[in-house]
Specification:
This protein starts with a strand and ends in a 5-residue tail after the last helix. It is globular, with a radius of gyration of 19 Å. The chain is 39% helix and 14% strand. The longest helix is centred in the C-terminal third of the chain and has 20 residues. The chain has 14 helices and 9 strands. The chain is of the alpha/beta class. It has a single domain, classed as Spore Coat Polysaccharide Biosynthesis Protein SpsA, Chain A (Alpha-Beta Complex), CATH 3.90.550.10. It holds the Pfam family Glyco_transf_8. Its EC number is 2.-.-.-.
Length: 319
C-alpha cells in the first residue's frame, strides 16, 4: 500500500453490479491526481462478465479489484437461527464489512460504502477526516429517525439515543483500532452467545459495540431520503438507502446525481429496464416491507434478550 493509497470497500452480488458502476463513475469523476484510490469489491459469486465490466471503469489512479468472501466459511462462524436475514432486502454481503479489519491486516484505515451511493466530492475528503482513537466515523440514520416505531427500537432495544444511532452504509473505519480491540472476535462472541433478534444485523452490532468510540459525521456525508430529517443542501455523498431507489421510483430525493452518472454507465440499458419493469406490485411490496420493519420494531420491545438489557446486566456488549 502506497502512502497516499485510499482503500474503498464495497460488497455486492450480481444484482447490484449496475449500481456499483454508477458509484465508481462518481468516484472516478472527482478523484484527485494526487492520490491513488483502490476500490476493493467484496463479492458473492460475482460473474466474470461483471468483474470485467467494472474493472474497465478504473483509471490510472483508480484501481478496482475483487475479493471473494467464502460464504460457507462465514456461516460456519455465525451459527444458528439468528443468522437468518429478515426480509428480502438483505443478503449475507451486509456482514462483510464486519470482517474487513481481520481479513485485510495491511490496511490501518479504510472506507466502506454501500453500492447504492453517488459521490459528489473527492472521496479523499472523507477518508482524510481525523478519526483520532475512534473505531469509526458515520452519520445519523435518518430512516430510523423518521418513524416512531424505529425510534423506540433504537432507544429501547438497541440502547442508543436516536440522535446517536448511525447508518452503516458509509463508514470511515479505523481498522488498526478495531484490530487492537479484537472487534471481529467480539462481534462473533456476542452473535453466537446471545442470538439477538434484531432488524439491521450489521448496523446494530456496529452501533452497540462501537458506541463509545464513534465520530459522528455531518449528514452531508450520508444524505439519505428522509421524511422528517434534515434536508441537506450540499450533499457530499448521496445514499439511496432501503426503498428510495431512483432506478425504481420517480421524484426520489437527489435523483439527478444518480442519473448524471448512470447515463455513462455500461449498464444503462439494464438500469433503465429495471425502472421500466418496476410495477405497482413491486412498489406495494416495498410498502409492505416498511410496515414489516415498523411492526418488527415494536414486537422486539418486550424481548427478554436485547442489546440494551444485556449491556445493562453484564456490561459486555460495548467495547
Amino acid at each position: 500500500m502506497s502512502r497516499n493509497e485510499i482503500p474503498i470497500f464495497f460488497s455486492i452480488n450480481n444484482q447490484y453490479a449496475p449500481y456499483l458502476s454508477v458509484a465508481i463513475l462518481s468516484i472516478v469523476d472527482h478523484a484527485s491526481s494526487n492520490n491513488h484510490y483502490h476500490i476493493i469489491v467484496l463479492e458473492q459469486d460475482l460473474s466474470e462478465k461483471n468483474k470485467h465490466i467494472l474493472t474497465e471503469l478504473g483509471t490510472d489512479n483508480v484501481k478496482i479489484t475483487f475479493t471473494r468472501i467464502n460464504d460457507s466459511d462465514l456461516q460456519k462462524q455465525m451459527v444458528g437461527e439468528h443468522t437468518k436475514l429478515k426480509g428480502d432486502y438483505f443478503t449475507l454481503t451486509i456482514y462483510y464489512r464486519l470482517f474487513i479489519a481481520k481479513i485485510f491486516p495491511q490496511f490501518d484505515k479504510a472506507l466502506y460504502m454501500d453500492a447504492d451511493i453517488v459521490c459528489n466530492t473527492d472521496i479523499a475528503n472523507l477518508y482524510n477526516i481525523d478519526l483520532k482513537d475512534n473505531f469509526l466515523a458515520a452519520a445519523h440514520d435518518t430512516f430510523a429517525a423518521d418513524y416512531p416505531q424505529t425510534v423506540r427500537y433504537a432507544e429501547d432495544v438497541i440502547g442508543i439515543p436516536i440522535d446517536k444511532y448511525f447508518n452503516s452504509g458509509i463508514l470511515v473505519l479505523n481498522l488498526k483500532q478495531l484490530r487492537n480491540h479484537d472487534f471481529t472476535d467480539h462481534f462473533l462472541h456476542l452473535l453466537n452467545k446471545y442470538h439477538f433478534d434484531i432488524m439491521a444485523p450489521d448496523q446494530d452490532y456496529l452501533n452497540v459495540i462501537c458506541r463509545n468510540h464513534v465520530l459522528h459525521l455531518p449528514q452531508k456525508w450520508n444524505t439519505m431520503p428522509t421524511i422528517h430529517g434534515e434536508k441537506v443542501t450540499d450533499p457530499r455523498i448521496i445514499h439511496y438507502a432501503l426503498f428510495g431507489k431512483p432506478w425504481h421510483y420517480d421524484h426520489v430525493a437527489n435523483e439527478n446525481y444518480f442519473w448524471h452518472y448512470a447515463k455513462s454507465s455500461p449498464y444503462l440499458v439494464e438500469i433503465k429496464q429495471a425502472k421500466a419493469t418496476f410495477t405497482a406490485a413491486n412498489a406495494e411490496k416495498d410498502h409492505r416491507n416498511v410496515r414489516y420493519l415498523q411492526q418488527k420494531a415494536l414486537s422486539l420491545l418486550d424481548n427478554p434478550i436485547t442489546f440494551k438489557k444485556i449491556q445493562e446486566k453484564t456490561n459486555e456488549v460495548a467495547l
